[in-house]
Amino acid sequence: xxxxxxxxxxxxxxxxxxxxxxxxxxxxxxxxxxxxxxxxxxxxxxxxxxxxxxxxxxxxxxxxxxxxxxxxxxxxxxxxxxxxxxxxxxxxxxxxxxxxxxxxxxxxxxxxxxxxxxxxxxxxxxxxxxxxxxxxxxxxxxxxxxxxxxxxxxxxxxxxxxxxxxxxxxxxxxxxxxxxxxxxxxxxxxxxxxxxxxxxxxxxxxxxxxxxxxxxxxxxxxxxxxxxxxxxxxxxxxxxxxxxxxxxxxxxxxxxxxxxxxxxxxxxxxxxxxxxxxxxxxxxxxxxxxxxxxxxxxxxxxxxxxxxxxxxxxxxxxxxxxxxxxxxxxxxxxxxxxxxxxxxxxxxxxxxxxxxxxxxxxxxxxxxxxxxxxxxxxxxxxxxxxxxxxxxxxxxxxxxxxxxxxxxxxxxxxxxxx
Length: 418
Description:
Structural class: mainly beta
Distance between the termini: 22 Å
Oligomer: single chain
Largest sheet: 6 strands, mixed
Number of domains: 3
CATH topology of the largest domain: STM4215-like
Helix content: 10-25%
């Protein structure tokens, strides 16, 4: 992104919608003319009242200043920072001015403060690398508390009388370089180091953890890869099961070891030997896939341990594993509404309770299955077809659809176009 006005326009659009739908004015635009502007506060306007959201300061974000540094940047012949995104904090001042009434000023300022309080996460659709492509991103909107002396000096610098002012910090904005360096090359060789056989009294095997590589496509389209450890997997239909495969790593493992799934329903430890139903391929490290159908585990947090038939009573240390509901990525990452404003996606392993659906930062309300959802509601017919409608006042744009069951988030797969 190079255009900082995208962020200013996104803030301005939020404020315009809040003013035009505020219950203070009965949910309709105010009875007096209002201009919501990103202009300098001394720019004259023709409206009865003006609400300014003005970008007055830009500073580097110190927490991400060197986050993207790579030794590969030195091979370009340019300074390494030239190939890194520039991470910025943007500082805005919010003020209102009426030509005739302090009541108008303070009403508008109160509406704007509540609006930005209700929208702490700003959704941005920034231009992507392809023609006409956009890349969804987010920035936080934080109300700052500068001293009265600092604000007085700021207005004095403007050469204007002091107004009631709120100061906001929007972060992080990324200005992307002209040339994006290629990623690190793929691993072509792996060196293994042998370890001695455990001595008497030492455990015969120990587990290190679970891991999974998640490949998904974001709007753009943009292929993305995320490494998860502990792993999160979802029981999926056979055609998609391979994408949910995860690895159980450890030392001293044997092909004949058994994998045991540990759960705690109602606080009671329950062990299930899943070797026969979960093992995707023989050998170690163990490659596992949670099965769909009657053997599918309920979404939630689990542990895995090993047992050894040759050593009755022995178990390895436990390692965590997360099981999620499955969201079908078929058809591409974006969802469009039908003429009635409803969206549909295919899911799996979704229980009758414990599930939450989120559109962007807005949580939707689950209703009885089989009932057509109204704005802000969702339902899942037969546990396989999920239908939802955006909440009233949802800003136009592309919003991520998040499915969370028993505190476990599903893989990113769908974005709804509102």
